Structures are given as structure tokens and as C-alpha cells.
């Protein structure tokens, strides 16, 4: 059987599976776990362990039709400024809660579009965070940047606050594809943004691309890939377009007839991946590429690659504190998500409490499976012996799943002793393999397609 038929027979094109940026996944979170648990877990943090901080800015000047991110469009800065005031209040509440001496090893601003903030607000936000959780000496500060919504002054303000990594949204450079996703982004504007970021000292630059967009075909994507390589990013994220109009209403503007069909979609992802590898980038996890000297590639080679809500990271901080509407914190006790809608988030903070609204308390079995799934997503392998180091004999609980995968996915995985490895030809099935270790089946959750 041809490889593609075999992948199809194992469910690649039909399966709807999580992207596993956390385990359990967010649909499993319960409203029983909220601000009270958040306050307790934050107060109990060990100040000797630096934390990561994520700040969500849910605003964009334009709303791209394909986008599934939690964000809202605005033509004026007044809602942004008012939101910044709420973030400052949230930080003040954190200051009352966090242990003395806690430091920040990483900070990431995402969205939405953080570069909607003008320079004065960039400084206000960065200073407010640093006042509550001062950075460590070798901290890293990364920001998601829309090249059409940034200028030199904003980049200078971010650089003055020590931004040293950036991620730019590209998606596709073809004019027909851009029109079909409601996102016009000329190459020369993107080039100018990259030049400004490099001149500002950014040493690790990521570019986001999406395959499976309307009207994308091999010729158009090939051209986009050439242009992206010309920009010389250190990392590339190549996401499969998640068409989830039941979650993201703006996607109803996408012409479904123009979406590449399953087989074309698979070929598009193969084409871009091949070109990136030929250009000397290393393949990282299921959808990232990085120059060999970039931190992400080094982490992957040394077994330190991790997966969190930002995707693949080389971040070693165990704790992630999320600020802003819909942000998720990963605390030693489990996950807590802030109220997702901005008005609900603001209401909670203004009432003088933290904004945690849903969450999950990790059991010992969750911790074991979370690490197993992370290993599969990061390294395409699961080694019970490695798991035993932190989880003891509980690791043996995963033997039935490994046996099932050996029987069902025989030619796509290899099982030797206590190790399951996904073969290179089976890597498109990684999320499906990971799902075998997921013990939670959230009611009514609808995920995006696996391919
Ligand atoms: C917050 S946005 C990026 C920052 C900035 N707002 C911009 O547009 O340049 C995060 C990224 O998520 C990805 N993304 C958004 N919606 C997606 C979808 N439906 N399917 C796959 N990837 C998606 C895009 O690659 C996008 O660049
Ligand atoms: S892709 Fe970026 S700019 Fe476009 S709607 Fe999503 S977050 Fe906003």
C-alpha cells in the first residue's frame, strides 16, 4: 500500500485531535477550579525557581478571516488603554499574592497583536511587570509582531525593554491567498519589519506560516517559501490551517470551496517541510523548523524541547503565569485559565480578585500522561525508563497503550523493549499517537483535523 493510503487508513484525514499544547487540554478544564486555587498556588511558589510570564493582548487593528486566536478588532486605542489599566490592576493583585523574591526567566507577549500598543504603553506594561516580578539576569523577552501593525518607534520601545526574540506573522505571501483570508501583507513591508528587528538586535526571529489556506497550491506556496527563506528567519512555524468556524465566527468568511482538499493539504505541508530542510533548517517537533544554532534546535538535540501554550519552546521554567483575558497559567498544582471574554476578565479584576475562571488540578496520573504526551510531541518517542525517573513504577501503566499502538500502527511505529518510537514516515500521525495516552475525553469538544 502506498504510504499515503496507509496514513489515510490510520485516520490521518478524518481524525480530529488536540494539538496538545497542554495535557489535559483546555476543554477539560472545570469551573470548579478558579481564583481561590490560583491565589493559593501562586502564594506557594518557590521564589528560588524563576517563572515564565505570558501576557495576552486581545486586540487587532484588522481581523484576519482565517484567524482562530482570541482577539477583537478595534480602530481606536481607548479599549487598549483601558485593558492596560486592568493588566496593571491584575499585577497589583499578583504583587499581594506572590512570594517575596520571585524572578521572571521569560516573558512572552502574545495575542491578538501586542504591537497595537504605542511606545508609551509598551513601556508602561513592561515596567509594571518588571516591578512585580523582576527579571533574572539572563531573561528572555519575546513578542508576537504583525509586520503591518508595527513601526520603528514601537520596535525601539520593545528593544529598550530588552526584547531579544520576536515572532512575525506571515501566513502566505500570495496576493490571491491573502485576499481570501482577509489579510493583505506586502513583502516589502515584511522585509522592512525584519530589517528593523535585526537592527534592533533581535537574534532569534520566528516566522509563522500556514498551509491549507484557500487557493494555496504548490506553485504559490513554493513562492512563499522562497520569500520567507530570503528573509532569513531563525525559526519557522508551519501550522496546518485549523478551520473551526463553530469556534471562530470570522472563519465563516472563508470560502470553503477554495480550501485545499485533504491530499493537497498533505502535499503542501510536505513541500514546505522539504524546502526548509533543504535550506539547512532542522525539523523540530510536528510543525517547527530552526537553524541549527538557534536555541530551539539546540534544545531539540539535547532533549530539552518543551511544549506549552506558545507551541514548542526551549523554556526550562516549570511555572508559567498567564496575565490578561483567557491566559492560561501552568502552576505546580495544575492549570488555571483567566476568564476568556475581556468584559468577564475585567469584571473579576475590578472586584479585587484574580481572574481564574476554569482550571484543572493535576492528579499523579495526569502528570505521568502529560509528560508522556509531551515526549511524543517533542521527540516522537516515549521511553518508559525515562518516565520512571520522575514517576516511578506508575510508568508501567502506559504499557497497554504501547502494545495497542504496536499492534495497530505496526509499520509506522517501532517498539523495542520499553521504548515506542514513531518512524519518520509515520510522523504525520503524531497527534493521533499522542491521543492514545489521553485519559480525558471532554464532552462536546471538537478539535481541528490531524493532518
Ligand atoms: C496571535 S497570531 C500572530 C501575531 C500577529 N497578530 C500577526 O497576525 O502577525 C498567532 C499565529 O497563529 C496562527 N493561526 C491563527 N489562526 C490560525 C488557524 N486558524 N489555523 C492555524 N494557524 C492559525 C497564525 O500563524 C498566527 O500568526
Ligand atoms: S492573525 Fe494576528 S492580526 Fe490577524 S486576527 Fe489573528 S491575531 Fe489579529
UniProtKB/TrEMBL annotation:
Its cofactor is [4Fe-4S] cluster. Keywords: 4Fe-4S, Cytoplasm, Iron, Iron-sulfur, Metal-binding, Oxidoreductase, Porphyrin biosynthesis, S-adenosyl-L-methionine. Residues 45-279 form the Radical SAM core domain. S-adenosyl-L-methionine 1 binds at residues 54, 111, 144, 328. Gene3D superfamilies: 1.10.10.920, Aldolase class I. It comes from Allosediminivita pacifica. GO terms for cellular component: cytoplasm. [4Fe-4S] cluster binds at residues 60, 64, 67. GO terms for molecular function: 4 iron, 4 sulfur cluster binding; coproporphyrinogen dehydrogenase activity; coproporphyrinogen oxidase activity; metal ion binding. This is Coproporphyrinogen-III oxidase. S-adenosyl-L-methionine 2 binds at residues 66-68, 112-113, 171, 183, 208, 242. Belongs to the anaerobic coproporphyrinogen-III oxidase family. Binds 1 [4Fe-4S] cluster. The cluster is coordinated with 3 cysteines and an exchangeable S-adenosyl-L-methionine. PROSITE patterns: RADICAL_SAM (PS51918). Monomer. It is found in: Cytoplasm. The keyword Iron-sulfur applies. One of its GO terms (biological process) is protoporphyrinogen IX biosynthetic process. Its EC number is 1.3.98.3. It catalyses: coproporphyrinogen III + 2 S-adenosyl-L-methionine = protoporphyrinogen IX + 2 5'-deoxyadenosine + 2 L-methionine + 2 CO2. It holds the Pfam family Radical_SAM. NCBIfam families: hemN. Pathway: Porphyrin-containing compound metabolism; protoporphyrin-IX biosynthesis; protoporphyrinogen-IX from coproporphyrinogen-III (AdoMet route): step 1/1.
